[in-house]
Amino acid sequence: MSGILFHKYGGEDLDSYYPIRPECQADVPKAGKTLSARRWHAAFSEDGHLDIAKVLRRIQRGGIHPSIKGLVWEFLLGCYDPNSTFEERNQIRQQRRQQYAAWKTECQNIVPIIGSGKFITAAIVTDDGQSLQDSNRDSLDQGWHVDGAISDKKVLQWMLGLHQIGLDVVRTDRSLVFYESETNQAKLWDVLAIYSWVDNDIGYVQGMNDICSPMIVLLENEADAFWCFEHTMRRLRENFRTNTGMIGVQSQLSTLSQIIRTIDPKLHQHLEDLDGGEYLFAFRMLMVLFRREFSFVDALYLWELMWAMEYNPNIFSLYESNSSTSDGRQVNDKQLKQCGKFERKNVKTGLPDKTSALSVFLVASVLETKNKKLLREAKGLDDVVKILADITGNLDAKKACNEALKIQKKYLSKSKK
Predict the structure, then answer these.
(1) InterPro entries attached here (predicted)?
(2) pLDDT value for 238
(3) What is the DSSP string of 136-199?
(4) Side-chain-facing half-sphere of 360: CA atoms under 13 Å
(5) Which residues contact 153 (CB under 8 A, 6 or more apart)?
(6) pLDDT for 238-251, tens place per residue?
(7) Within 13 Å, how many C-alpha atoms sit on residue 26's CB side?
(8) Are 342 and 372 in contact (CB under 8 A)?
(9) What whole-number distance in Å separates Cα of residue 72 and Cα of residue 65?
(10) Residue 205 DSSP SS3
(11) Residues in Cβ contact with 147 at an 8 Å cutoff, skipping those fewer than 6 apart
């Protein structure tokens, strides 16, 4: 491993916020001028209204100081309306905590190990609903007992996935000291288990652990971490849909293909000739938002840059109304100033929402940076995968986002013609 360097935030080492095990430490680039705790608190009016436009400008310049990341993310992800008071937000927070507690109790009544500070990594039921507690020490330790087979389809489907969540939790962000604690691992398992109970249509899919993990690290209250994750999944949920006969990110891959075909027809044709025209090699990047291509710290920095650039002031009301239409994204002139850079351009041009996410243009920017190498050296799909694998740990998050904005501009310009 290379020398021990960390992001610097106002003279502080990031290691004090996200301790990394010594053998996993590596160089990471500096984040630049961040949204500091002082600037964050100064952006609120006396009763709690947030000047979101000012906050977004700062985040887009250099990210968010670790001490306030979780709090700021709650706004970026639409958990709260910046045009609300401290009191109104506190009421929403308490209601959500109560709702989470109710769901957790439901789950505990079925599998008591939930909320115990422990978790399971072995199956607890068979596919036909027979209990396996005799072979699972974890469930025995909890005094868990099931009489007869489980006949409720939702309960069985949920219970069948719990051990897979446990197996993935063990593998999640192992470089962090935070997850050396079984209690913290169990917290991640609890949130993912309860989410899969609530969203039984999608359930749990591998990769959700990578999305949820930062929320567990950043937000001390488990219920708050759950809601932050739940709101993130509202953006990414379709990425994890596996029961439709086609992968959930298919529409985004289709958009990616369209973007490259438009801005770089030569590269697109080359990829088509290699049977890569469906862009399946970009599947992982889009599914888990570049978590595998960036270190933990840089992935967080990338996410908040993206969410700030994609921010729409109507996101809270859109989620509260459970609307999936693009009408909720329409803004007036004042609200347009409260949009992130990327979203502002989308709103002006009426570009559809989910398939044209910034992450798609981000993948396009990665392909463009590797354009010459791909054209010169890629003789098959394995070569494409290998060339793109070289970006791991070598991508500058801010530069990549700015390149994505340039590609968006180029794509919109060429599309009009």
Answers:
(1) Rab-GAP-TBC_dom, Rab-GAP_TBC_sf
(2) 86
(3) -HHHHHTT----S----HHHHHHHHHHHHHHHHHHHTTTTBGGGGSHHHHHHHHHHHHHHHHH-
(4) 25
(5) none
(6) 888 876 555 668 88
(7) 12
(8) no
(9) 10
(10) coil
(11) none
* Nearest alpha carbon to residue 136 among 170, 166, 106: 166
Taking only the tens place, the pLDDT of each residue in 290-320 is: 998 888 888 999 999 999 999 999 999 888 8
- Give the residue from 110, 116, 191, 101 showing the smallest Cα distance to 157: 110
Angle CA(48)–CA(343)–CA(89) in degrees, nearest 5? Answer: 20
Q: Per-residue DSSP letters for 21-33?
A: -GGG--------S
Which amino acid appears at position 365 of this protein?
S
Polymer length in residues for the chain = 417
Tell the residue number behind the tokens 């889009």, with chain if given: 286
Q: Which pairs with CB-CB distance under 8 Å and at least 24 residues apart come from 405-410?
A: 405/309, 405/341, 405/342, 405/345, 405/361, 406/365, 407/259, 407/263, 407/361, 407/364, 407/365, 407/368, 408/342, 408/345, 408/358, 408/361, 409/345, 410/263
Residue 170, SS3 per DSSP = helix
**What are the residues facing 9 on neighbouring strands?**
12
Residues 6 or more apart in contact with residue 100 via CB below 8 angstroms: 194, 222, 223, 226, 227
Q: Which residues contact 251 (CB under 8 A, 6 or more apart)?
A: 238, 354, 355
- State the residue for tokens 């010169």: 376
44: β partners: 50
- Residue 410 sits at the vertex; the CA angle it makes with 406 and 416, to the nearest 5 degrees, is 145
Domain with CATH 1.10.472 in the chain: 247-416
Summarize pLDDT for 315-371 with one digit per residue, the tens: 998 888 875 554 556 777 778 889 999 998 888 877 655 557 899 999 999 999 999
- pLDDT value for 320: 86
Q: CATH number of 98-134+144-229: 1.10.260, 1.10.10, 3.40.30, 1.10.8?
A: 1.10.8
**If we measure between CA atoms, which residue out of 257, 302, 283 comes closest to residue 388?**
283
Percent of the chain exceeding pLDDT 90 equals 61
Neighbour count for residue 21 (Cβ, 10 Å): 12
Tokens of 46: 């006396």
What top-level class would CATH report for the domain 247-416?
A: mainly alpha
pLDDT in tens, 61-108: 999 999 999 999 999 999 999 999 999 999 999 999 999 999 999 999
Domain with CATH 1.10.8 in the chain: 98-134+144-229
